[in-house]
Amino acid sequence: MAFQGKKLINDPNDVVTEFIEGLVETYPGLQYLDGFPQVKVVLRADVSAATYNKVAIISGGGSGHEPAHAGFVGEGMLTAAICGDVFASPPVDSILAGIRAVTGPMGCLLIVKNYTGDRLNFGLAAEQAKSEGYNIETVIVGDDCALPPPRGIAGRRGLAGTILVHKVAGAAAAAGLSLSEVAAEAKRASEMVGTMGVALSVCTLPGQVTSDRLGPGKMELGLGIHGEPGAAVADLQPVEVVVSHVLKQILSSETNYVPITRGNRVVLMINGLGATPLMELMIASGKAVPQLQLEHGLAVDRVYTGSFMTSLDMAGFSISIMKADQAILQRLDAPTRAPAWPAGVNGGHPPAKTPVPVPPSRSTKSDESLGRPLQLNQEGQTLEVAIEAAANALINIMDGLNEWDSKAGDGDCGSTMYKGAAAILEDMTNYPLNDAAETVNEIGSSIGKVMGGTSGIIYNIFCKAAYAQLKTSAQSDVTATKWAEALQAAIAAVSKYGGASAGYRTLLDAFIPASEVLQGRLNAGDDPVTAFLLSSEAALAGAESTKHMQAQAGRSTYVSAEILASVPDPGAMAAASWYRAAALAVKDKYQPS
Length: 593
Description:
This is Dihydroxyacetone kinase. The chain is of the alpha/beta class.
C-alpha cells in the first residue's frame, strides 16, 4: 500500500531553493542569481558575462537529480546550471537569465537532456538569446539504451551519460576552443555514450506518497530518472547477473546504440540513483570491469563510481559506457573545480592487487630457518611434546567448554578453542621448534588464521607479546626465567588491550596465579620442571575460583550472578587445561614416573 514519504525538509515547495542555498554555503566557488523562486540558477562565482572570455557551458533540467546539475558547476565543467522544480523542466525565463549572466563574446553551449520539456524550454530560450545577439549552440544528449529504438520523435532519454558530456565540453571550453569546436566535441561525446538503469524501488517526491509499484523481491530494468516505468520488471538477481544483463543491453549489436566493438577503449560510470550505498556501487564496479574486459573484449581506461545523476531516493544504479580515445581521455582527465566531479580517477590503473607485506622477522630469515628443523635439539623436543599435549587437551575438553559457555556466554568457547588447537597441530610440522621465540610467533599466526571472536585476538596478542619478550634473549637456549618473563609480558599485554585484570572472571584468573607461582618457585631455587608443574596447579585453582567471581569483562557481564556461580569461566578453564597439559608433558619427558 502507499504511504506518506518521510523527508528531512521544510515546505515541499521550497526544497529546490533551500537546496541551492545550502549548496552555495558549502562551496564558496558557487553563487546563485537573486531571482527566487522563479529564477533558480547556480553559476560560477568567478564568471560574469562582461569579462568572461571563454565559451560558457550551461545545462540543467528538473531538480531531484542532485548532484546534477548544480554540483557540476565549476571551472573546467559547467559555467551555470538551470534548476527547475522537482522533475520539472526549468522555465524559459530562468534559462535566459543564466545565459545572460555568464555568456560573453565566445558564446554559449547548451547541453540538454532529451526530454520534451527540456528541449522545448531550452530551445525557446536559445532562440530568444540569439535574437538578443548571443552566439548559441545546443547539443541534445540521449544516451538511454534500455528501450527499443523509438518510432516517433521522442528519441532516447538523457541519462547519467550526460555528465561525461558535461566534462568533455567543459574541458574543451577551458582549453580556449571556439564555440563550434566545443559543440563538435560535445556532440561527438554524446554519440559515444550509452546508459541503462536498474531500480529496486521507485522514488518519492517531496510531500507525496511513496509508491508500491515495485513489490518485494522485484527490480525494474531500464526505468527513467523521473521514476517512469522501465522496459521490464523482473525478480531481483545477484548484482553480477544484473551487471551482465545491462552491459549486454548497452553494447547490443542489434540496437547499435553505441559505436563500441571488441578491441575498443571505454570509460565506465557506475551511478547511484539516490539511495544505494557506496558499498553496493563499488561491488557493481568490481563486477563490471572484468566483464567488459573478458566477455566484451574492451579495455577499461577509466572508472567513475558514485552518485552523479540521481532520482531523489530511488534505490538502484545506472551504468554508462563511453567509447574512449586519447582526445576523450584528455578532456576527462583535465582539471576541474566542480565539486561533484570525482577526484583521484585521472590516469591509468596500477595493478589492482599488491602483495601482503611480510613481517620483518620472516623477511630476514631464510625459509629453512622458519621450517621444521631436520633434527630437533633438546629445546625443540620439549616444545614439541608441550605443544602437542596442550593442543590435544583443548580438543578433548571441547564439549565441556561449550557446555559451560552455554550458561556463561554464547556457547562456542570449546568450538573456538578446538579450531585453534587443530590449526596448531596441522601447522606444527612447519614450526621452527629449535627456535622458541619463532615457534611462539608461529603459534600466534596459526591461531589468528582460524580463531574468531575475542578469544582469537586475545591469544594472538598473548603469543605476540611472549614472542617479543623471548626475542630479547641473546642466548640460543631460552632459560626457564626467560619463559617466566615471557608469560608475564603476555599477561600484561592481554590486560592492557583487553582491559581485564585479576578477579574479572577471565582467562587471566588462570594465568596470573600461574605466573606468580612460576616466578616465585624459580626464585626460590626450584628446578624448572617442578616450578612449571606447581604453577599449573595454581592455574587450575585460579580457573576454578572464577565460580565465585562477578564477571566484569566479556559477554558474562550480562549473565546473572546465580547462573555464573554454577560454572567456572570457560576461558579460564581452557587456559588452565592447556597449561596443565603442557606442564605434565614436560614432567613426563624429564621426570618419568
